[in-house]
Design brief:
Layout (H helix, E strand, L loop, with lengths): L6 H8 L3 H8 L10 H13 L6 H8 L4 E6 L5 H16 L3 E6 L4 H13 L4 E4 L6 H9 L4 E4 L9 E4 L2 H14 L5 E6 L4 H16 L9 E4 L4 H12 L8 E4 L2 H14 L8 E5 L13 E5 L1 H16 L9 E3 L2 E4 L10
Parallel strand pairs: 1-2, 1-3, 3-4, 4-5, 5-11, 6-7, 6-8, 8-9, 9-10
Antiparallel strand pairs: 10-12
Helix pairs in contact: 1-2, 1-3, 5-12, 8-9, 10-11
């Protein structure tokens, strides 16, 4: 059986000290004033010899593994995959590796991922929480494990979080549709108790009320996370019947919008002539629709960078506040689908 390559083996191959190799492989060469040329040689030697650090031994010695566990709803969703990449890049700059997984909006899968990450001895968590995961978050807090919630949060849990003002963003989008002549605005959201979705629905209803439009329950679709395609298709057909005949759709997420566009396209509905559309968040799939889609843009860079900063500050005991609630800006990006005459 081949002997596992040690840090000493890497050092001996270059005729340098083990301490010097350790500094470089732990991304601390600047602190040790190691030249870029030497740092490069050490990394090349480690790669050539197939050196793999013993994370368990390292963590027992330092109390850290320099890893962060990231849990999102669905890594295939562009919103979460882009945030994950930003978090990964920012964490790497601080000497941390990110391991991630998708909860698929399931509390059970979320717990499984947390257990796996704890067994991997992660130092901290960044989580876009699923419904009914409050106990999981509180359990991590009891273990004094740093945690930051992104995109979603729980009002009854005092935890660091990064998100937008969902109520205000939804209100602005719906009011824009109304001010451009749309009076029968339907909304498609997910059937969930998660606060961010509830706030989007509240913003929608408030915009209708403040503009003198009476909210109708049959204008609001709440689809299941697990089976959105049939739900959205069925409800779009219903909402476009003569007795309802809505003249605008506000989609609460990009995944709902993508499913909605499929149905609208099949029905031959003219956008924006017959139907105006605004979606929460963008998607590459929107580029394939004949009418460029208007959407609410969240600054993914701000969300990702703020999340990593909060985690690193907690890990380094810099942040003395009990918790931080960071609100990042969202803006309405107007394109052809909302019916606005663009310059």
């Amino acid at each position: 059986m081949n002997k596992k390559v040690s840090l000493k083996d890497v050092a001996d191959s270059l005729g340098v000290s083990g301490a010097l190799v350790s500094y470089v492989l732990n991304n601390k060469e600047k602190e040790a004033r190691v030249s870029p040329e030497m740092a490069k040689k050490i990394r090349q030697a480690a790669s050539r010899l197939n050196y793999q650090p013993n994370l368990i031994a390292k963590s027992l010695k330092s109390g850290k593994t320099n890893t962060i566990g990231l849990i999102v709803a669905d890594i295939s969703n562009p919103f979460f995959s882009n945030i994950a990449r930003i978090i990964e890049d920012e964490a790497r700059k601080q000497g941390y590796v990110v391991i991630f997984g998708s909860s698929d909006e399931s509390a059970e899968i979320s717990q499984e991922l947390i257990d796996v990450f704890l067994n991997r001895l992660v130092d901290a968590f960044i989580i876009a929480p699923s419904e009914h995961t409050e106990k999981q978050i509180k359990a991590l807090q009891k273990r004094n494990i740093p945690i930051v919630l992104i995109d979603r949060y729980f009002p009854n849990i005092e935890a660091d979080s990064v998100h937008i003002n969902n109520f205000q963003a939804a209100y602005q989008a719906v009011e824009h549709l109304i001010r451009n002549g749309r009076r029968r605005v339907a909304m498609m959201a997910y059937d969930t108790s998660l606060p961010h979705m509830q706030e989007r629905k509240s913003g929608y209803k408030a915009a209708l009320k403040d503009n003198g439009i009476r909210f109708r329950k049959d204008w609001l679709l709440e689809a299941s996370y697990q089976d959105i395609g049939p739900d959205v298709n069925k409800e779009i057909i219903r909402l476009l019947k003569p007795e309802l005949k809505v003249d605008a759709f506000f989609f609460a997420t990009n995944s709902l919008a993508v499913e909605g566009l499929k149905a609208i396209n099949k029905l031959g509905i003219k956008v924006p002539d017959d139907l105006a559309i605004i979606s929460f968040d963008e998607s590459d799939a929107f580029d394939f629709f004949y009418s460029p889609l208007s959407y609410i843009s969240q600054s993914l860079e701000d969300i990702g960078k703020n999340a990593v900063k909060l985690i690193i500050d907690r890990l380094n005991n810099i942040n003395t506040k009990k918790y931080n609630d960071v609100i990042v800006e969202a803006k309405l990006v107007l394109r052809k689908s909302c019916g606005t005459k663009l310059k």
